Amino acid sequence: MKKTLVIEDNEDNLELITFILEKHGYKILSAKSGKKGVEMALEKRPDFIVLDIQLPDMNGLQVLEKIRRFKDRGNIPIIAMTAAAMKGDKERLLSAGCNGYIEKPINATVVIAQIEEILKKTL
Amino acid sequence: MKKKYTHEKTREVTIEPKKPLQAIMDNSPALISAKGQKEQEIIGRKQKKAELRKHQDHLEKLVATSTKELQSANEYLKSELEKCISAEQKLKEYADEIGDLYDHSPCGYHSLNKEGKFIRMNQTELSWLGYSRDEIIGKKTVPDLLTPEFRNLFKKNFSTLKKCGWIKDLELEMIRKDGSTFPVIFNVTTIEDSAGEFLSSRATIFDNTDRKRIEVELMEVKDSLEERVKERMIELDLSYDQLQIELAERWHREAVLQKNAEKLLKTQRIGKIGFIEWNINTGEMNWSNETYELYGVDSKMKPTLDLLSGLVHPDDLKDVQKHIDLAVRNKRNYNFDHRMIRRDNGKTIWVHLQAELVHDMEADSEYLLGSVVDITGRKRVEEALRASEKGLTDAQRIAKLGNWDLDFATNELKWSDEIYRIFELEPHEFVVTYEVFLSLVYPEDRDLVDEAFKSSVANKIPYDIIHRLLMKDGRIKYVNEKGETYYDDKGNPLRSIGTVQDITVRELAEKELVNYRERLEDLVKERTSALRTKNEELNKSKEALVSLLEDVNRSKTKLSDANVRLKELDHLKSMFIASMSHELRTPLNSILGFTGIILEGMTGRINREQKEQLARVYGSAKHLLELITEIIDISKVEAGKIETFVESFPFEPIVQGAMENMRALAEKKGLKLEIKIPKKIILKTDRKRFLQCLLNYLSNAIKFTEKGKIILSANLEGKSLKVIVHDTGIGIRKEDLSRLFQSFVQLDSLRLKKPLGTGLGLYLTKKMVVEILGGSVAVESDYGKGSRFSLKIPIEYNKNTCIKNTDQ
């Protein structure tokens, strides 16, 4: 069972994504802040991370940067999740080191397909 | 004699042919042998007889042959004889001819023998001498026929003739039988035998009488000619001497003349006097250098009357012509001032022309000789003088100022015209004196005037007074009187001079002026106070204006401040909306997410009614999300927060993608989607925004079309690409077209139905096309039939074509 770390400050969204992923057999770890997310990513060693880009304490890109600096498991797959469906975001995130990218609002069926597609490429 | 000579010759010739015949007969050998045979008749007669017969036969034969030969010889001789006779005939004819020529030639011929005796002489010479042939031949010698003085000469020459064989052109004189003489010329040749011994001489003689006579005549002519030449020479010498003297005199005269001419020229040059000579008969004209210079005419020009007339000042031309006519007609001297216009610089000069008519007896011509002097300077002075005199008079008249001059010795007072006029007297009416003057002064002022004048004279100080005059009709005039006096060495006054000026008008005017001035001062006072009031009012108005202006300026500053603030606020608003929208979106995301899960049945079964209602929740939430998303986009565009992301990409896949995206929606409504675009177009622009615009147009088209099809077409227009989305929908009213691209416009016609869009789609599309892609949008529509929304963007993105902040 794959271990997933979801870093998301909004409880509803966290619940939603957790629900969907658990339904599809993923084990979910969650962090509600960037700082917490980085710590957990280091301690819990998830298989991959779903990262909300807009966090209260730090920018999702900063979180990404920190995780990528890990000596061990620095290359963990990270899937960005954002409502900022504006132009340039995808490119910016990908060039910053994200492995994939999903848009809010999440559609239950679509999101799983997207995640599995991304993981298939990276793992 | 001729005939005898011929006959002898003929006989000689006939004798000769007989000789060969006799010889033949005498010397025949046959005859000799026949004589010897008679002595031997005793030996055998018969034999001898036979032999004799034989000989006889032989002889007969011989005779016959000889006879024949003789006959032919005879015939030959006969023919020869005939030839000789005809030759002799011819010779005789020649001899006759020669003899005739000899006797009758125009010169004399004779031949002499060794002894010098004549052996032959022709008829011509005989007839010259008057002798008969018999008297000469064999009897006379040449010296017998010569005059004594030529005999020796001949003898001398005759001896040399024998030596050298000829004498040529020897002149001698012969004596006729009658004793008269005549000159001849001898030409002699000798005839010698084969041993070179002198046989005879032959001479030709010409009668030299005519030549001699001509010679004598020629000599005479020559002598007389020489005489005449001598005479002529003497005459020539005389006249040559005369000529020399005349020539010397002429040279002298010419030298004097030349000198005089030079002097004249010099004088003319110094005096600027030009010279003109005009031949009235031929019209020929000559000018001196000075004349050319005076008239400013190029000295190469030929002077003519026309040229001269052309130079005369037009105003004077008639006068000049009249004077010339008079001078010519009346043979009168003529003397006249007129103006000329110099040919070189067009300046007007005054000249004095003096002309005199001269009759040249030799040439029988009449000349008008003239001198021209430039008197421009004089004229100018004269004119100036005249002008100044006139000016003075005028000045005096205008100034009403006269001058006077008093002679103390004669007590005579001279007044200028103006004084008479001031005193209203006829000029020179009477002799004025000081006393007369005083009598004209206004009685009360007389003492003053007298005192002033006298004290001035006594104290040698000029005086200057104003006094009155009393006119005949009782009028009073004011005059200003000025004067000063000149003195001799001893200090006695000689003459006083002075001026009188009529200042009545001035005096009266001054008085009037004083009145005016007083009145004016009052007026000024009034006006000044009025002005002061006005000025105060004005100042107040000005202050008010200034404060008003300050207010305006303040307002203006406030306004611009407000404007700045407003812009800031607008920007803030956009920022606010952008961030707020995100906050709004987050809850919507969870609504949509969870509703989606439930609708999917992931949380367990739901009944049909629940599903329908939940779908409504889902739809509304989705609509709300769209709205918010578009607001975010617009806000970002308006806040200038959008970064353009330019990349190169092929056009066709983008269109295919967009169509694919819309296919489900279209098929739901049973609409066909068509693409009509050129292939292989590569765009270089913001791909995502471009796609968003296409999607907006397409979704709009689907929304407002119930049946038919949606066509997406495109074509290149220069460096731009035009994309048109053509639908067969409800279309748009003409009056609504202009409002279409504004924000939150939902056309009334559409409001009747449930709201289909956010009302921001076209607004956002236009904003993106214009501000981000640097292009333009357009719409055409047939109401009820369909619409064509188009956008046109540069194939290669160009920042300069992007227009920011339009429509705000």
Topology:
The complex is a heterodimer of chains A (123) and B (808).
Chain A (H helix, E strand, L loop, with lengths): L2 E5 L3 H13 L3 E5 L2 H10 L4 E5 L7 H9 L9 E5 L6 H8 L3 E4 L4 H15 L1
Parallel strand pairs in A: 1-2, 1-3, 3-4, 4-5
Chain B lengths: L1 H14 L3 H8 L2 H9 L7 H60 L3 E5 L5 E4 L1 H7 L3 H4 L11 H17 L1 E10 L5 E12 L5 E10 L1 H62 L2 E7 L5 E3 L1 H7 L9 H7 L2 H17 L3 E8 L6 E13 L4 E10 L1 H24 L1 E7 L4 E4 L1 H7 L10 H7 L2 H17 L3 E8 L5 E12 L5 E10 L1 H97 L7 H31 L7 E5 H19 L2 E5 L5 E5 H17 L5 E9 L2 E8 L6 H4 L10 H4 L9 H12 L3 E7 L3 E9 L14
Parallel strand pairs in B: 17-19
Antiparallel strand pairs in B: 1-2, 1-5, 3-4, 4-5, 6-7, 6-10, 8-9, 9-10, 11-12, 11-15, 13-14, 14-15, 16-18, 19-20, 20-22, 21-22
Helix pairs in contact in B: 1-4, 16-17, 17-22, 18-19, 19-22
Question: What is the compact description of this entry?
Answer:
With 123 residues, chain A is of the alpha/beta class.
Account of the protein in words:
The complex is a heterodimer of chains A (123) and B (808). With 123 residues, chain A is α/β, with parallel strands linked by helices. Helices cover 45% and strands 20% of the residues of chain A. In chain A, α4 (89-96) links the parallel β4 and β5. The model of chain A has no long low-confidence stretch (mean pLDDT 86). Chain B has 808 residues and is an alpha+beta fold. The model of chain B is unreliable at 1-15 (pLDDT under 50). Classes of the chains: A alpha/beta (123), B alpha+beta (808). Chains A and B meet through α1 of A and α16, α17 and α19 of B.
* Main pleated-sheet profile of chain B: 5 strands, antiparallel
Going across the biggest sheet of chain A, name each strand in turn: 2-1-3-4-5
**Helix/strand structural class of chain B:** alpha+beta
| Structural class category of chain A | alpha/beta
Strand order of the largest sheet of chain B: 2-1-5-4-3
Please give the alpha-carbon distance between the first and last residues of chain B.
179 Å
Percent of residues of chain A in helical segments? 40-55%
Provide a count of the helices of chain A: 5
Q: Beta fraction of the residues of chain A?
A: 15-25%
Mean pLDDT of chain A: 86
Largest interface, by Cβ-Cβ below 8 angstroms: which chains and how many residues each?
Answer: A-B, 23 and 26 residues
